[in-house]
Amino acid sequence: MALLLNEEQSMLRDSARAFLRDNAPVAQLRQLRDSQDPAGFAGPTWSAFAELGFAGVAVPEAHGGTGLGAVEIGVLMEQIGRHLSALPFLSSGVVAARLLQLAGSPEQQAQWLPRLARGEAIATLAVDEGPKHRPQAIALRADAHAGGWKLSGTKTFVPDGHVASLLLVAARAGDGVAIFAVPREAAGVQVQRTVMADAHNAAQVLLLDVALPAEARLPGDGATALQQSLDFGRAAVAAELLGIADEVFERTLDYLKQRKQFGKLIGEFQALQHRAATLFVDIELARAALAKALHALDSAPKQAAEAVAIAKAKCGSAATLAVQESVQMHGGMGMTDQLDFGLFMKRARVLQELYGDSGYHMDRLARLRRY
Amino acid sequence: MDDTTTLEGFRAETRAWLEANCPPEMRQPLRGEEDYCWGGRRASFQSEAQRLWLQRLGERGWTVPTWPREYGGGGLSPAEAALLQQELRALGCRPALWSFGIWMLGPALLKFGNEAQKREHLPKIARGEIRWCQGYSEPNAGSDLASLATRAEDRGDHYLVNGQKIWTSYADQADWIFCLVRTDSAAKKHTGISFVLFDMASPGVSTKLITLISGKSPFCETFFDNVRVEKHNLVGQPGGGWDVAKYLLTHEREMIGAIGERTQSQPLGAMAAQSLGRDASGRLDDPVLRARIAEFEVDEAAFRALMQRFGEQARAKQAHGAFSSALKYYGAELNKRRQELIISALGSGALESDAVAARDWLRSKANSIEGGTSEVQLNVIAKRILELPGA
Fold first, then answer.
1. Domains defined along chain B, listed by start
2. B252, B254, B300, B333: which is the annotated catalytic residue?
3. Largest alpha-carbon pair distance within chain A?
4. Which of A40, A283, B184, B226 could form a disulfide with A201 if both were Cys (CB 3.0 to 4.6 A apart)?
């Protein structure tokens, strides 16, 4: 039963759902947004999330995590999507933790992974440099300098960059790509928070001749580790998108069964029925594509690129359709900030861009299939 | 542990049997519809190998691996049947039999037929001795199938059937028909319908081929003029035909939904690159078509994953009864997109009047009409899955 959840995974889903509903619902995101909270997430919620073992779900047991896999990451991310929970799980617990596991030295792993799993530190990957995700065209330079390295350049759209104590910076070193562990407080690092439309956190990171010791460079092959950890991140983002699609679709279906116009429930109109049915099929396709990708990441991560590209592309387009239909079918009320649909729409739009939009991943599929 | 050992033993036996019994010619890839074997009283076999393969597989019950042995099936468990499928695929064995009896009537008879009907008809379906056709649609009952008007008048020991069916695939070549008829014209439209079986050689049955936009087609008009149908050939209860019909349609929808899967050969992107060439960076030399193909291939892969997931749900008894409508809807639309893209990839050469690609392209337009239109499937999803009001 590769594409269905087993009993433990279903229990994980139920407990994550209950926890996030009670502790990190959409109302919390509103409150963080309206109070212009400097962290952008609720510290106590994040600590409680970590205490339940969620933050370290993908960290090996030897480093204090629960040592589970991509399917479990997907289970958590779907629930995060349903509740629009603002938590640094994706940046720190998924992508950065994966990258450290794949390419970090034993010392780096021992230093950081347990703290990430306990939610005591936040790490994040800094990869993008321009308006679109182009990991194959990294320009930020790492030059050999005094027995170590000197990094110069700019990174944008760094998730949770303003609250991370560790930046994993993808840089061009010689002919290849290397990953550097850059402490937030290193001299020459400037981090500027960019408040995004979705009220989640991102940052611009400026590196001005940042001098680092030789061991700051993660010893594993940078390009490979970057792609593989990005693939975990992409699948996780796809899961968050699916959670958003599920949530807004459920709410919209309820509305179609309550709202009356022309003396009828609007759900009786075939024009809306067919659109709802089409959207249902699209979401089911996205769910299956995602399950396939998560399964591939667990069973053969090096061969998972195609499945992940398909899942990110499909979940992106299905969620985009879902949030758009949710606003349209709620009419004027859908446009109000009082209802949550705008928040879901903004989050979905940001997640489309994060780690490559649907177009990027369609192109990637074509490249992988050599046409 | 024990199960695994038994299954591995079954795999080894199966492989050995297939090696010994599947003729080498029957391990060549299918070239097209001309290689299909439909069986029947008037079966014309392309080769002795084709006849032998059907005979051997049929005797073992492996044309219908999961049907009970007493009805000519293989009596295999779902796990064994899945293994058999894997082994057939591994050896490249062609399907021995194409059959509406297997895909559509058989499952309905197993569920609704009485003991005598199962013993009479199922073994002949399994061995490919009788070829069946489906009498559902009528000129005035297409999407609104339940408004069908073909009458079956009660004449004591038999019914007298009068009326007309349309879109009857292979009616001109079929031996028997399973047919929806109205046995009670006073009842509400869904409750006056019965499901009957009769011999196409009966006096009063005639057929006429229909020419489609794709050229030749298997579709017929089928006429019934005072056809005598014995009462023991009614399946289920009199007036209970709609339940049988719906059950059977579920199987048909899954089958049409899977059409692209069965017939798909080369991936589209590779086909287009071969036809149109690549630019200096190795990309398909038509950027807009490349993007459309990539978008299609994402949806195609997602659909394949959806079918796999649906299969797992069905085995775990978690599948929604109406989900086959979702598969039918999307599979049909996807296949139409595929055929449009194939023409775009092959260009004008594909549009020569006798080109296979052109025929397939035109034929695919029926995918979203036959077995319930896409619009009807969306209605079913809205009503039965989404539970929208008044649908």
1. 2-98 (1.10.540), 132-240 (2.40.110.10), 258-385 (1.20.140.10)
2. B252
3. 79
4. A40
B388 vs chain A: nearest CA distance in angstroms? 6
Q: Are B124 and B130 in contact (CB under 8 A)?
A: yes
Q: Which two tokens stand for residue A77?
A: 């991310």
- 3-class DSSP assignment, residue B390: coil
Domains defined along chain A, listed by start: 7-122 (1.10.540.10), 124-220 (2.40.110.10), 223-368 (1.20.140.10)
Question: How many Cβ pairs closer than 8 A exist between chain A and B?
Answer: 137
CA B305 to chain A, closest CA, distance in angstroms equals 5
State whether residue A339 is helix, strand or coil: coil
Does B331 touch chain A if contact means CB atoms closer than 8 Å?
no
Is residue B320 within 8 A of residue B363, CB to CB? The reply is no
> What was the pLDDT predicted at B215?
86
> Residue B110 is encoded by which pair of tokens?
């197993």
Q: A234-245: per-residue pLDDT in tens?
A: 999 999 999 999
Least reliable range by pLDDT among A211-215, B5-9, B289-293, B297-301: B5-9
Of the residues B297, B315, B334, the best mutation for testing chain A's interface (the one with the most A CB atoms within 10 Å of its CB) is B297
- Record the pTM: 0.90
- Locus of tokens 């992107």: B269
Count of positions (residues) in chain A: 371
Instruction: Give B5-31 as a 3 state SS string.
Output: HHHHHHHHHHHHHHHHHCCHHHHCCCC
- Please give the mean pLDDT across all residues of chain A: 97
Strands B158-169, B151-154: pairing kind: antiparallel
Higher local confidence (pLDDT), B4 or A45: A45
Distance from CA of A55 to the nearest CA of B (A): 28
Q: Does B337 touch chain A (CB under 8 A)?
A: no
Which of A273, A285, A363 lies closest to B382 in CB terms?
A273
Q: Residue A35: pLDDT above 90?
A: yes
Note the pLDDT of residue B1: 41
Write the pLDDT tens digit of every residue in B126-166.
Answer: 999 999 999 999 999 998 999 999 999 999 999 999 999 99
Inter-chain residue contact B294 with A362, CB threshold 8 Å: yes
- Contact between chains at A314 and B299 (C-beta distance less than 8 A): yes
pLDDT grade for B259, boundaries at 50, 70 and 90: low
Tens-digit pLDDT profile for residues A156-196? 999 999 999 999 999 999 889 999 999 999 999 999 999 99
CB-closest option in A264, A278, A365 to B294: A365
Q: A142 vs A103, A164, A230, A275, B2, CA distance in Å? A: 17, 21, 21, 51, 59
For A257-304, where are the alpha helices, taking DSSP H only? 270-299
Q: What average pLDDT does chain B have?
A: 92
Report the candidate in B273, B260, B346, B262 with the shortest Cα–Cα distance to residue A366: B273
Judged against a pLDDT cut of 60, whether residue A353 lies above it is answered with yes
Nearest to B308 among A3, A256, A367 (CB): A3
DSSP code string of B45-105 = -SSHHHHHHHHHHHHTTTTSTTS-GGGTS----HHHHHHHHHHHHHHTPPPS---HIIIII
| B252 is a catalytic site residue | yes
Facing A273 at nearest CB: one of B283, B315, B378: B378
Tell me the C-alpha distance between B373 and B250, whole Å: 13
